[in-house]
Design goal:
217 residues, alpha/beta, Rossmann fold, 6-stranded mixed beta sheet, 7 helices, 35% helix, globular
Amino acid sequence: MHHIPKPIGTRICIIRHGETEWNVEKRIQGHTDVPLNEVGRAQALAMAFNAAHQRFHAVYSSDLVRAVETAQVLAQREDLAVTLLPQLRERHYGLFQGITADEGAALYPAAYAHYVARDLNYDFETGESLRRFAERVADGIDWLVRHHRGQTIAAVSHGGVLDVVYRRATGRPLSTPRDFVIPNCALNWFHFDGQGWHLDAWADRHYLHEVLTESPE
């Protein structure tokens, strides 16, 4: 059992949803509602079993089905209902939704250049800019902290959301390349003490070694 730091302010365990077929195919999902695949459901069960030694005051989820399905497995073990929080949705990737990054490079080379450069203001024409997405995520996290002061809660979300929270908690700018992994169904622990966001434990997935397969956002 991994040691989890003692409560300081509000503790939030943020969990990326289980694997989907689009993860396997390396398709960018964004707001597209893709359900978990068989591996994803197994990951969710393993995650919920591992998290059972924690007591959560509440379980939240993005309103996209891949997150809701993952959250429901955890909530059932906790005998809690899942509360949907749309601010925890993945970024809207506009014209990149439903295609792979390689397809994006071929079909929309200018858009792909913005994507690779992590341009804060580019919105994929019909999507969200990285700057606006990060502001939405921060609003959602701040709402959770205000409503659960001093409590421990779980929130099931997405790779892009965890990217934003990790960077905020470790002082890394949004524009730098990602040099950290965001595995499906790993436990990521943060605390919020009124002064800022702090990372306590990242990518705890020791329980997934039997079912884990690597996959992109």
